[in-house]
Amino acid sequence: MTKFAIITGVSRGLGEGLAKLFLESGVHVIGISRTNNNKLPKIAEENNQIYKHFSCNLSAPDEVDDTFEQLKDFVFIPELTEVFLINNAAAVEPMDQAMNIKKEDLVNHIHVNMIAPMLITNSFLNEANKHEHVQAIAVEVTSGAGKRPIFGWSTYCSTKAGINLYTETVALEQEELNTGNKVIAFNPGVMDTQMQETIRSMDKDAFLDVERYRKLKAENQLNSPVDVASVLIDILNDEGVINGKLYNITDYL
Predict the structure, then answer these.
(1) CB atoms within 10 A of CB 57
(2) 226 and which of 2, 17, 78, 241 could share a cystine (Cβ 3.0–4.6 Å)?
(3) For residue 206, what pLDDT is reported?
(4) CA-based Rg of the chain, rounded to a whole angstrom?
């Protein structure tokens, strides 16, 4: 049995935590990010697993397509029995009143948060469905911001809401086609990551709720990325994982 996990945003935070735990549990990892993670090759070696990194600018659709074309033959080998895709990479900026957001920043955000995960998932499922013996599960990392408006987060809320409905729609298609493959969304909650540092640095005029996030850090209420990664891996290892479901970390931690 050979298993692979393809993870975007693997250089730090939740992506790094997922890669570490997958490697330690006997799953080969393909990492996709602009910069490599120097810790993961050593972890892979210690656990006799494969770690391979592909550098990719997720805001460039052609580069996203080219990257998947490069990695698919590396992953979809005859021995493959199970493969996971975790679309973890995301941008929170620009954070500002919608009327102040520049066109370039808006377009870049939508490419990273919405277009890239959709492109990768589409290619992933297309390839998986050519291999009948392979079980494939795609995970779209979402946010509670996809279900409610937040002052200063018009781009982030909108892209996460879009990813939620994309997940449900593609899951429905896989169900109707009886492929056996699944697509789920996962809300990791508020984690102690570099993204949170960026959020806490914002001016209140741009992000009205900034004090709430500063308080979460001050009161040590941020989840560890490794703890959150452990929950997601447990979900994926459960044979009863529900196609199209939005899983929330608050139900587990």
Answers:
(1) 16
(2) 17
(3) 84
(4) 18
Fold of 2-188+224-251: Rossmann fold (3.40.50)
- Residues with catalytic function: 156
How far apart are the C-alpha atoms of 89 and 31, rounded to whole Å? 11
Decide: helix, strand or coil at residue 218: helix
DSSP H/E element including 104: helix 103-110
**pTM given for the model:** 0.95
pLDDT greater than 90 at residue 216: no
Taking residue 149's Cβ as centre, other Cβ atoms within 10 Å add up to 10
β pairing state of 80-87 and 2-8:
parallel
What is the tens place of the pLDDT at every residue in 126-156?
Answer: 999 999 899 999 999 999 999 999 999 999 9
DSSP string, 68-91: HHHHHHHHS-TTEEEEEEEE----
